[in-house]
């Protein structure tokens, strides 16, 4: 057994313990009051990178939260891999639904619970563990490594494009490896070959200048809470299809063979539904659940607020209503075109009885798809087979990683999506967690990948 | 000039100063944490009633917040008048829209600003001032008086019916006077001869057992925020008509003569719109603003909450959504029938992809209408002419006072609605206020009413 692999096997518990340190830092990028925590999380990573022997690690400023960069470039003639991840997390609310505190990492039944456990701190630390294993046992790495760990993924990476453009020379690589996705089920390691894109907006409506008595004014003044509900309802038809003109124009249709492959995947609808806990599943007519999740675009209400929402009754006619609406896009939809179409359509639907404002609240993410014949993908497939003891399946994910299409385009390098999350690990929701078996086997796979890319066998 | 009238004229400022004491108590009946404030407000009233010489005043328990009762019954052969009001108030939120604190009464430009200033503490204290004027100047009242000041009006008076039924003997009266309404415009004192009724519900939808990642699950799991918006939108058609089956069956249509009378009232649509501050008015097609407010039923969204509502973006698929919906009813709609129809219809519209709960959150209030030929109404009209120096107009209000139809029915006595509020005084909204001229002239009118009912001229 390769010494790096032995090293990981022998220290399994230590890596999880170390990860807890990063999980304790509430690095919530969307909340301005957590700016200092963002800096603390970046510093934690730099210290960890230096401790494992990467030598060069630093915090680089952007116009928003900083980027953590590190490299080890002492393997001449070997390929250079850029590893991307993020240290920022989603807000933890609603707090009352967490069994243990979101920033008090706790292990229960082989799972590590904390905000960011799987998305994405655990997956970043999986890579750091694999690098540590090589460096501590050999004093060297099989390949050249660069690490780019950003702090704005959860808010749509608004400053990353310009950062990458400024640092193109420093970031140049033969291959990009990104771990921010999930496998389809435990025991089914996979490689993600497709992503959805995203655009996100906030719609604000203002009717009266202040809240009114619903008896004294109701019937003669528009109710923004009702008007906004009505507008949102009109964004989809009775079959669940989005009504924005041109929305589906560029959607790439699945071929019959692709549909057959999707149908073969070990996706158990019953278990998926049980994990979700809803009375039944629901989506666009004419598509299976996996097709709806991976190959069809969506429009979701992420938040809605109007009027009195406390306990009991308050017969108020609200003056304001607010909704957050995001759309997940699939190949070959263009986020810029969709954003324009959405804004035009909402402006057209908005009644003249209220003042309506539309604000884009997140960076735009393009959808992405890669060919399973790519040689780098084949190397990763071999590494996963060794790390997990199973041949990986090729899947997609419904989520968005704007950096994937961006890096592929700017660095002109293929991207590998090596995700070790699970679909029921509550990324973005209460009780987020990370399966520690997957964390361990993912770390083994990462160490094997370095060897595979160097042309070494282990 | 009658001594009681002289007394009121001489002490105009003192009555407003005294009222501030009651306005400082945050007696919010819908919030359990204000239970002690409710008791304090009731005690304040008992002390005030004793101080002006009513002799018998006490706090009577109910199954909810207590009732304040007082009487003076030393005018044998004269009619007995029961004065009804309420000491509870609406919640003050949103707090950031108040210019001065909701429970820090402040006079600006002849208006007294505080939650409850006009609804209804100011109007209760107007009656107490008139009684004080008679008692302090004559040592006696022209008629017999009973006062019933309840603490649950803003939550639909859930315990008042049973309280009145238990205390029928004690509350027996020849006439009921209620001051909890508004005049149509400053300088246009009026008597309210019609009220809308009300029913109010909360609809809760639960989809997944916890919030989900909108990328990982969006498209395959129902979004309760969207489903509830869709359900609410279906409660009205494109013309603003409520779609609940049978909703309009019992609505009494306005006669051509009634419509002509409404059109003659000094209602200025432009000023109404300016007060409201919305871009334009809005309502059911085919009706004027006053008709929409007074003679047509409504359905309003009073509150809506789902998902992430903070600053920025959170791409969550919410597990829950909640809306508060109330309906204002007009003669001859039956609140029980409408409540039943609403619940049946919402259950029918609710998709099977979420768990839906419908909860009634307020007592039911019947609509009410009185004939302008009533002799007691004529006495009040004469009193108002003297107090305000103007002949009153007969109006309706879009609001609901469930006690009016209840008292009329249980006590078998006519009700007089003597309201001195103004339409722009923000009852139920931030910056609620009371015009101090109206407070003063209303107090004069109340004192004159006692004399009119006693058959005395002044």
What does this structure look like?
The structure is a homodimer. In chain A, about 35% of the residues lie in helices and about 20% in strands. With about 450 residues, chain A is α+β, with helices and mostly antiparallel strands. The longest helix of chain A is centred in the N-terminal third of the chain and has 22 residues, at about 115-140. In chain A, β1 and β2 form a beta hairpin. Chain A has two domains: about 5-195 and about 365-455, Aminopeptidase (3-Layer(aba) Sandwich); about 195-250 and about 295-360, 2-Layer Sandwich (Alpha-Beta Plaits), CATH 3.30.70.360. At the A-B interface, β9, β10, α7, α8 and α11 of A face β9, β10, α7, α8 and α11 of B. β11 of chain A pairs antiparallel with β11 of chain B.
Q: Could you say which structural class the secondary elements and strand pairing of chain A correspond to?
A: alpha+beta
Quick one: CATH superfamily of the largest domain in chain A?
Zn peptidases
Shape of chain A from CA axes?
A: globular
Mean pLDDT of chain A: 95
CATH T-level fold name of the largest domain in chain A: Aminopeptidase
Please give the alpha-carbon distance between the first and last residues of chain A. 7 Å
């Amino acid at each position: 057994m390769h010494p790096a692999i032995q090293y990981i096997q022998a220290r399994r518990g230590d890596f999880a313990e170390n990860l807890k340190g990063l999980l304790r830092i509430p690095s919530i990028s969307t909340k301005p009051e957590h700016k200092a925590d963002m800096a603390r999380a970046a510093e934690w990573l730099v210290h960890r990178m230096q401790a494992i022997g990467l030598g060069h690690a630093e915090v680089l400023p952007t116009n928003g939260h900083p980027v953590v960069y590190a490299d080890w470039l002492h393997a001449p003639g070997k390929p250079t891999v850029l590893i991307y991840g993020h240290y920022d997390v989603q807000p933890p609310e609603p707090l009352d639904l967490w069994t243990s505190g979101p920033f008090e990492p706790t292990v229960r039944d082989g799972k590590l619970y904390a905000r960011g456990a799987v998305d994405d701190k655990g997956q970043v630390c999986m890579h750091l563990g694999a690098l540590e294993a090589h460096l501590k046992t050999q004093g060297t790495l099989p390949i050249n490594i660069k690490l780019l760990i950003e702090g704005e993924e959860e808010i749509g990476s608004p400053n990353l494009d310009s950062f990458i453009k400024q640092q193109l020379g420093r970031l140049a690589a033969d291959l990009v490896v990104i771990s921010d996705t999930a496998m389809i089920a435990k025991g089914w390691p996979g490689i993600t070959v497709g992503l959805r894109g995203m655009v996100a907006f906030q719609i604000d409506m203002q009717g009266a200048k202040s809240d009114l008595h619903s008896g004294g004014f109701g019937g003669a003044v528009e109710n923004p809470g009702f008007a906004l509900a009505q507008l949102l309802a009109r964004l989809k038809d009775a079959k669940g299809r989005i009504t924005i003109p041109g929305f589906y124009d560029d959607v790439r249709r699945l071929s019959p063979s692709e549909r057959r492959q999707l149908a073969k995947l070990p996706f158990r609808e019953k278990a998926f539904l049980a994990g979700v806990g809803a009375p039944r599943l629901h989506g666009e007519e004419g598509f299976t659940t996996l097709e709806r999740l991976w190959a069809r675009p969506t429009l979701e209400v992420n938040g809605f607020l109007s009027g009195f929402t406390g306990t009991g009754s308050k017969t108020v006619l609200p003056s304001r209503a607010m909704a957050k609406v995001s759309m997940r896009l699939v190949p070959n939809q263009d986020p810029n075109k969709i954003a324009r179409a959405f804004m035009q359509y909402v402006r057209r639907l908005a009644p003249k009885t209220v003042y309506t404002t539309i604000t884009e609240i997140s960076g735009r993410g393009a959808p992405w798809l890669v060919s399973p014949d790519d040689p780098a993908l084949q190397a990763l497939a071999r590494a996963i087979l060794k790390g997990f003891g199973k041949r990986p399946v090729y899947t997609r994910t419904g989520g968005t990683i704007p950096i994937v299409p961006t890096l592929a385009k700017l660095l002109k390098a293929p991207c590998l999506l090596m995700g070790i999350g699970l679909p029921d690990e509550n990324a973005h929701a209460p009780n987020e967690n990370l399966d520690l078996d997957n964390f361990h086997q993912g770390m083994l796979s990462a160490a094997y990948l370095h060897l595979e890319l160097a042309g070494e066998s282990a």
